[in-house]
User: Fold this.
Amino acid sequence: MQHPVPLDQRKQQILKAVVADYTRTGVPVGSASLAVHLATWSSATIRNELATLSEVGYLIQPHTSAGRVPSDRGYRYYVDFLMDEEDVPPAVRRQVDPFFAVLPTGVEDILEIAATALAQAADAVSLVTAPRALGVRVKHLDLVKLNDAQALLVLVLEGNLVRQQALNLTSPTDQTALSAIAASLNAVVVGLDASGVSRLPESVGTYAALEHDLLAQIVAFMTVCDAQQDTLILHDGVRNLLHQPEFGDVELLQQVIEVVEEERMLAALISAADLDHGFQIMIGRESGMAELSRCSLVLTTYRAGAERRGTIGVLGSTRMAYAQVGPRVRYVAQRVGRAVGRALS
Amino acid sequence: MQHPVPLDQRKQQILKAVVADYTRTGVPVGSASLAVHLATWSSATIRNELATLSEVGYLIQPHTSAGRVPSDRGYRYYVDFLMDEEDVPPAVRRQVDPFFAVLPTGVEDILEIAATALAQAADAVSLVTAPRALGVRVKHLDLVKLNDAQALLVLVLEGNLVRQQALNLTSPTDQTALSAIAASLNAVVVGLDASGVSRLPESVGTYAALEHDLLAQIVAFMTVCDAQQDTLILHDGVRNLLHQPEFGDVELLQQVIEVVEEERMLAALISAADLDHGFQIMIGRESGMAELSRCSLVLTTYRAGAERRGTIGVLGSTRMAYAQVGPRVRYVAQRVGRAVGRALS
DNA sequence: TCTTAGCACTCAACCCTGACGAGTGCTAAA
DNA sequence: TTTAGCACTCGTCAGGGTTGAGTGCTAAGA
Assistant:
């Protein structure tokens, strides 16, 4: 992290105008068009300032006789010091709210809806992770006979997540017996996480071999669920990238889509974010991924129930309207948090 | 459907060669390069034949001095009469088989894996629908208390599909009572579909108000599941389109992605297919969708258990290697059918 | 000292042109 | 019926000139 170069009032105004113009049009912006907006100074003055801003690395000139484009550092300065965030317009609220009007019971379904809503609201690719530490506590379990050698375990976890897995039966057991086992397990298992369940045999101590064996399988499965939960990332809205002129280059588009379709990449990306303050904007190469050098991430956490934190955000062009996207991401995050919190209660 | 124009031996050979060449290179093929492969005739002779094939509409000339490209009808003739399907190469089998080596218990998860496997094997976008009439028969149900006003219904359906839904409680009921209700329902509900469950009150007749009310909610929910099941279409492999030269045009790509990301479109597409004979290739405009005029569909049914049929296939460029793709689609279909059948048993 | 009008300069984009070549259709001879 | 030969078409590519947007520099003015 290098310190930002300090800018005087006028340079700030000009940089801000460049970002605004470029965000709107996608075309490198020249001194003449800036002079129209910033009528206080002539194009020549602005030209001098642009030269300085280029020297200190906030602007880039694609070629000698072209206008200026903000560099990653330029966007960074804009985002940190110049940006006036815009309220989420009523039209967007009206677009988002219906998604959260009628909600499914399961947390995962809610997250999926959130991804769709955010992709639409921000006109970019949306990313949503499950609330951390979600899904490890048992709310209820059930056993359904499949055949002599197998039973289906149905786990209802906190957040109304339902998980299923075939378990092996060491001896043929009928449904009545399975139901009895399930009932007796339900009496002790509620609210426990994987390690809690694994300690059950010690504390209760009187299980038959079959129950013992089933418990071991349940613990193993819960551990798997746990791991899956941590890497679960939903996304939506790849189509929103297609109409951006900067992705007219298929090469570039391909790289981005490859990252988005590869869940591991996304996980790495999100875990690289510094969300201690609940909100982060990563611009261009700041993400550390070469494929996303022309993309920015706007991420925020959402709170679900008591301090469960998930991440939600968008991936779009570096040229995105940061002043609009940030508030919209947080708006949806707030809605998601509320909805997931309700499901977790 | 118009009758195909009959072709003599030589025209057939030439058409076949044109399709093979164009599929391989993506470049319009001229008489000279054909004369190399078909050494029996000179380029002039081939030129004459190409002219005839163009006249009857099997080939198209992008411009006067360009080579020939197969038309939709040309591909149709090729697929119907000329194509020699290739065996699925061992390398591809080795790529596909691991996907089906370790399978999850739920049908939906299996289908998701199948989509990934097929996308890879056919280097195109894969499409998979759930087996028809799946998911309507109850295998097991359970009720979990959420709060005084709500209980969570967990339905295990045939195929080990698990569905959940919050139900409203007309009066506060504790978990013990809910479990008792679930147990009594389980005794009669197994194997029934939505309409069967809806007729339960008549045949049993002795339900308390609460049970009566819950049953009504269960029926309603099952009907919803039913409808969802019919429209469920998974897809994967959009990235595979990106390296095809014909999709270098972003416009085109955008149209295709829009169709693929819109589930209703896909549903319409697949229901338009005529799968009475279990396998269909739809070439270009045959699909009836303008957006997919440069795409072909290769679809087949798979059998899961006793006569349950789902659809699986790929969407790719019209220039795809039909002789390879058909067998690969059927190979994966067979694997899926077996896997889903096992899950349904 | 700061601002700005003016001007020369740069360079991508565009259009025109001509050379090239891939590929055709036609014709006439085998 | 086949095929060699040839004129012709037309897309592609490279070169060259023009245009115009935008710059940097300079010198005059505030």
